[in-house]
Amino acid sequence: MIVAFSVSPSGGEPDGGVSEAVARAVKVVRDSGLPNSTNAMFTNIEGEWDEVMDVVKRAVEAAGEGSARVGLVLKADIRPGFTDQLGAKVDRIEAHLRDA
User: Fold this and answer.
1) 19 phi and psi, to 5 degrees?
2) pTM surpassing 0.70?
3) Is 90 exposed, middle or buried (0-12, 13-18, 19+ CB in 10 A)?
4) What SS3 class is residue 8?
5) Quick check: helix, strand or coil at residue 10?
6) Which are the contacts of 77, defined by CB distance < 8 A and separation ≥ 6?
7) pLDDT tens across 43-89, in order?
8) Which residues on neighbouring strands pair with residue 38, listed in sequence order?
9) Contact 35/52 with Cβ under 8 angstroms?
10) What is d(CA 75, CA 37) in angstroms, rounded to the nearest whole number?
């Protein structure tokens, strides 16, 4: 499965940013060893259900350190029998764009 998630604690930085808290969450994801990528809005992680959800839980906890509340947005692509899809899905789209 692939999960795209965004986590945001309440409070944050004086300018309204949450980059420090999000960095703590991304570190958990990267340290997990699972395939992942981060962009301006979401972090994507790929693996089996239990391992991915464990990493998401730990990332939310890390982002929420010192905060009374954390918001989580999560989208999952559950496709049994498929692996290595973080790059493969994008590759298929790029191939269609080249052929267009």
Assistant:
1) -60, -35
2) yes
3) exposed
4) strand
5) coil
6) 1, 2, 3, 85
7) 999 999 999 999 999 999 999 998 889 999 999 999 999 999 999 99
8) 43
9) no
10) 14
pLDDT at 77: 96
Beta carbons of 69 and 21 less than 8 angstroms apart: no
Q: What is the DSSP string of 20-85?
A: HHHHHHHHHHHHT-S-EEE-SS-EEEES-HHHHHHHHHHHHHHHTTT-S-EEEEEEEE--TT--SH
Q: Which two tokens stand for residue 100?
A: 């267009």
**What distance in Å separates the CA atoms of residue 31 and residue 9, rounded to the nearest whole number?**
21
Residue 89 identity:
K
Element (H, E) at 6: strand 2-9
How far apart, in Å, are the Cα atoms of 85 and each of 8, 36, 58, 79, 81?
A: 26, 11, 23, 10, 11
